Amino acid sequence: MDWDALSFNRRLAAAVDVYDRSHAEDLCEQLIAHIRASDELYAPDYARTVLRQLRRKRFFALMTGVADALLQSGQRHPIVRCEYAQALTDRGMPGAAAELLAGVVDETDDPGIRAEALGMLGRAYKQMSVTLALPGSSRQRDLLRAAVDAYGRTYLSDPSRCAWHGVNAAALLRYAQRNGVDVEAPFEPAAVARRLLQEMEGRFFDMASPSGPWDAALAAEAGLILDMPEEAVCWIQRYAADGRVDAFELASTLRQLLEVWQLDASTEPGNRLLPILRAHMLTRQEGTSLELTPADSGSIATAEPDSDFEKVLGDAGVVTHSWYRQGLLRSRAVALLRHRSGRPVGTGFLLRAADLNERWSEHGTVLVTNSHVVSPAPLAEDTLTPEQALVSFQAAAADGSASGEASVEEALWSSPPRSLDCTVLRVAGTDRDIEPCPITPFRPRLDGKQRVYVIGHPEGRELSYSIDDNLLLDYDDSVLHYRAPTEHGSSGSPVFNRDWEVMGLHHAGRSDMRRLHGEDGTYPANEGIWIEAIRQAISEE
Q1: Is 321 inside any structural domain?
Q2: pTM of this prediction?
């Protein structure tokens, strides 16, 4: 059958637009097989479209596989190598990306491609410099100089068309100043920022020259360069609310504010800028797993309704903040479970005891986790007994309402891992400290649009929200299947619906999960235990 590249690109776009990772993987496998079986080079324009569609939704692993197959086939067009380098950088391999991009810069005669490659080369050097474990070293100085040179050369060649190169160079110069690294400036950062703000103001009010989605983000950084936080907040809100801004853009801007500007959610202006970006990432279900520090959860979740953050969002953004804040409040009831030696094992969450069983009302709140995490009769070596378990509520500790680690007093109920995989624990001192999570009384529609949200401690790290590729796939009377990026250590996490009500208890994930209702075949999915199934089992006993 003849290969129809245009039809393929349309099918791929439809898959990535709804985060159908399984379908996107199948399509990419078909494309790679076609590339390997064809004597003709794949057209570079069609190749770039494929790679940019994958980049748009941050499918960097798929992007890398397709780009590598293209290079193996002999398709070494500069735009293919540039996109490949972009994927490598975003997958944490900026050194390999820099080698690819240096070759493109040396070989191409196209000024547009050269500018693009130099910008990406600057990004690769920037990534290496800000993540270096030797801050202030000669190696970091050399990397920062290389990044500023790559960005600066491009900006000076055409300041109007290469504004983002200039802003990146200026931001890195400010980074070098803050960290005492000697980097020669090709221009005055403040001059670049003032020129950009003047141009951006004109574009936003000139219908004949409409602004692009990146423009407001550049203007926000210009505000930071000029030490004008109110200007930065205003522009970042415009940027995040722009419907054209996708997962790739939001994540890139958040990374820039965290790594280059070194902002945090506990101090100005990070306590206003970072939550705006994170809120929009959550409401759009785009990007990747969003990891939150205790400062994020504490400072934003406890903000009053008339706080500066809500004022910044304005009328159009209050719902976004309210939804985001509710999720952060729920995170206060999510716990990290450790062995007494300090080894992280899993996650748990608080519920009202009476919501699970009316006879337990005297217990106030209880902690729910998997029985393969904690069990009074462990069946696996890594499973904790109640006496071995320590419980800490990271988000609640951030605002001082809870501190330290609590011990488990007793196991009220437990089911085998092969059954409902659930243990209900009484934990010392949680009744007065933390509001437990509510349980949903309803089952969601299976219309292919419903999403779930998982909050946990993957690998024992900071609290993490799984928000990418998080469609509800199917359910029966015992379990629900969903796509959400979870890792080891997420066992025992709560599975929420869109109203932040608990639907289930996360306990497993497989790339070949058996389909429900006796259907043939498998699919990649995570599995949670219906909270209602747990309630019924407790009442029957």
Answers
A1: yes
A2: 0.60
